[in-house]
Structures are given as structure tokens and as C-alpha cells.
Amino acid sequence: MTIENMIKRIQNIMRQDAGVDGDAQRISQLVWMLFLKVYDAKEEFWDFAEDDFKSIIPEAYRWRNWAVDEKDGKALTGDELMEFVDTKLFPALKELEIDELTEKRKAIVKYVFEDANNYMKSGTLLRQVINIIDEVDFTENEDRYAFNDIYEQILKDLQSAGSAGEFYTPRAVTDFMTDILKPQVGEKIADFACGTGGFLISALDYLTEQIKTPEHQEMVQNNLYGIEKKPLPYLLAITNMILHDIDAPNILHGNSLTRNVRDYKENEKADVILMNPPYGGVEEESIRVNFPTALQSSETADLFMSLILYRLKKNGRVGVVLPNSFLFGDDRAKINIKERLLEECNLHTIVRLPEGVFSPYTSIETNLLFFDKTGPTKNVWYFEHLLPEGYARYSKTRPLRKQEFEAEKAWWDKREETEYAWKVSIEEIKKRNYNLNIKNPHSNDEEINQKSALEIVKELQQSQKEVITIMEALEKELS
């Protein structure tokens, strides 16, 4: 059974249930069950490895004791299953008692169920879904690592993802950015809007060959840090990290922007920051006041860029995904943020991605910014990512692949001007009032400017959607 077929089978069953309304609820429903299945597999290992291990989950509520169908006619189903889940299982997991002495690997059970809900109303359909999930054996390495494909398929199937702010960062992008920054064991690696944990998993995969001792493993365990605001991706991130043998993930459920940036101490800063911050969102006044007046912006991506400047260690390295609007934005806050970025950090490279990398969630053109805190910027190198031959743009059916970044990797250390790479001095950027949206000087200007009417209409429609989103948020704030 392929992962794609498994997800489709589950979604087709859920569509028959009157209580599940739309893709978002179907995914949320699926994820809490996946978490319990995955956590039970980890507990099976802990039971074997540790003589004194005791589960935080009461015995009757462990997956193995209520979900598994032994085909003996005794498995809970129908109204009996619904009553168990709604009146016993969920209250028990939401009300687990934890304190500062509770092991983190145990406390996460309560954390992930704080915002979880059972939407299904049919116990018969719920039993069918549980049985499909139970077909996956997460104690086997092959099935454990298939979880990457599971949540990737989940997000790809969420067509409303863009409007919900749920942007899946392609694995090709997270792996490439990680390869460029080269994180090391002992360094603190952070993503302050980590979503489902894609960047942290790429970093973990990169670190795997460096882990030689139990001490190395413990350092990696303690130094991978993420924070996620939304309940669903938070739960996915926790589950994914556990499957990758991070038993006590340092993933916090919260908003990175709610704390005053002046309060961060040195031990709260990171050596490596990898991020695709949410953009297009509007933050309220109570969030904006956590930043110096000159950096206060209502745009979410702007505030995350400021946050990065405050949470990056000296000599630290950053890779961040940002839309074109950040590069050319000329409102006072954006200019101030870019000026501060270029004065405090060395913005050495901007990789310009073509349209469609984040399809189907958004058609917005994006950029990969790489900088480090080693001194002010003197020159910014640009590299225009090439579409494969025969492609007009990336799409859902023709996605970006990891090997397509080989051109960037081959060029990276040489830093030579080519047809697709060019250098701009800080003096030129200042003359442009910190507009970083600098086109490839080697391209044919006519070719750049000749866009089809359809492309122009699409861009206008996207801009209109963003304006409507901002206006709705402002209207909500004012009311």
C-alpha cells in the first residue's frame, strides 16, 4: 500500500462522516490518531530499553489497548467507540497532570492534545480509519521514515492551504538551504515559525553523519529548537521529530512574536537559523510594540526578519525564504529593517526562485536570502535559479527537485559573474534606497518585460487577494 493510497482511503472514509467539515478538519482528525500510533511505537521501544519506564498515558488509553483490532469481535466500534473517545480518551489526555519535573517526552502528550478535537460522529467510520492507520508499523524503520511522505501528502492535498497560511516548504528547498549553511553538532539550530518541522528535519538529516557518540546525540537533541503558533502543524512537527528519534522535541506551541525582542539573552540566541516565515499576514498593535519603533511593521514577514536579527549569535548563519515584496518594499519599516540587516550582517547571497515553487499554495515569486553576523555587507551576490529545460514554470505536477540546485552548489564557492549570477555593491543598494529587487543585468530586457496578458492578470489577481486579506484583518482589528 502506497502512502498516497492510504491517505486517499482515509479521506474517502472521512468524507462520509457528517461531523468532519472540509480538508482542514479531516487533516486535524487524522493527525491526532497518527500521533497516538507513533507515540505508542516509541513507548514500545522505551518499555524494552528502560526497566523503570512508566507511561504517562493511563493503561486503558494507550493505543495498543483500545485501538488495535485483533479480529476477535471485541474491538470497540460504533456508539461504544464514540463514547470511549469523546467521554474518556480525550478528557483523560487533555487533563494529564504534569509539572516542571515531568519528562518532556511525556509532557508532550498533554501539549499536543490541548487543542486537538475529535470531529467524527460515526463510530463505524472511525473504526475503519483506525484500522487503516494501524496497518503502518512505526517500529519498522521503513514505515517510520514513510511518515515524511504521509505529512507531505497531507499538506499537498490541502488545497486551501495558502489561504490558511499553511505553506509547505518543498523538501528540495529545506535540504538545499541546510546544505549551504552546514550546521554542526553543538550548534543551536532554530526555526521560529517551524510549521511541520521541515527545516529541522533537514538539519537533523545533515547532522546524522556527525553523530558518533551518545554525547553527540544528546547535543543534537537539546540544540534543535522550533516554535509554531498553529495547533495542527505543531502536532505534525512533534510527531515527525519523535519518529526521527528526537524523543523530547524542543518544539514550543506559541507565537515567537509575542515577546519583546529586547529581552532576549545570549543563551537564547541561535548559531544557525533556517526559516520560511509566514508572509501576507497582519499583526496587531500588541505584537508590533515588541519591536523598536523604527522596525514596527504590521507585516508578519517583516517582524520575523527583525526577530532573526535579535536572536542570531555573533558569527551565526541564516537562510530564510522571503517574497519579492520584502526585497522591493519601500515603506519606512521595511527600509529600516533592510538597512539594519545590511549594517549588522553580511547579506552575501540572494537566490532568486522562479514562479511556482510553492504551487499550489501561492504563485508568489520567492527568494532565498543567506547572511551571517560577521560584519556589515559589502556586496550582495544574486543567483537566478534556472528552470529545467522545457519548463515554463514549476507547478504541483512539475515540482522543484533537489538536484536542480546543483548549479548553485557548483557556483557557490567560486563566486564568478555568469549569465545567471551577478554582484551588486552596498553603495549601489543604498542609492536604490535599499531596494534589493535587482534584476539580472545579463538577461534580455525585452524578454524580461514581455509577459503574457494571462501572466499579468494572474499577478493582479494575486495582489488583489493580498490586499483583501490585509483589509479584512485591519477591519477585524478596528472593530
Estimated structural class: alpha/beta
Spatial shape: globular
**CATH homologous superfamily of the largest domain, by name?**
Vaccinia Virus protein VP39
Please compute the radius of gyration using only Cα atoms. Answer: 24 Å
Output the CATH topology of the largest domain.
Rossmann fold
Going across the biggest sheet, name each strand in turn. 3-2-1-4-5-7-6-8-9
**Helix-residue proportion:** 40-55%
Report how far the terminal alpha carbons are from each other.
51 Å
Order of helices and strands: HHHHHHHHHEHHEHEEHHEHHEEEHEHHH
Give an overview in words.
This protein is an alpha/beta fold. The protein has three domains: 3-138, Ferritin (Up-down Bundle), CATH 1.20.1260; 159-443, Vaccinia Virus protein VP39 (Rossmann fold); 447-479. Helix content is 46%, strand content 11%. It is built from 20 helices and nine strands. It has helices spanning 3-14, 22-49, 63-66, 78-94, 104-113, 123-133, 141-145, 147-157, 171-181, 198-207, 214-223, 231-243, 285-288, 300-311, 324-328, 332-344, 406-412, 426-431, 445-449, 453-478, and strands at residues 189-191, 224-228, 250-253, 270-275, 312-323, 346-352, 366-372, 379-384, 421-425. A nine-stranded mixed β-sheet has the order 3-2-1-4-5-7-6-8-9, with helices on both faces. Strand 2 (224-228), helix 12 (231-243) and strand 3 (250-253) form a beta-alpha-beta unit. Helix 1 (3-14) runs antiparallel to helix 6 (123-133), helix 4 packs across helix 6 (123-133) and helix 14 packs parallel to helix 16. 35% of the residues are buried. The model is unreliable at 159-165 and 446-452 (pLDDT under 50).
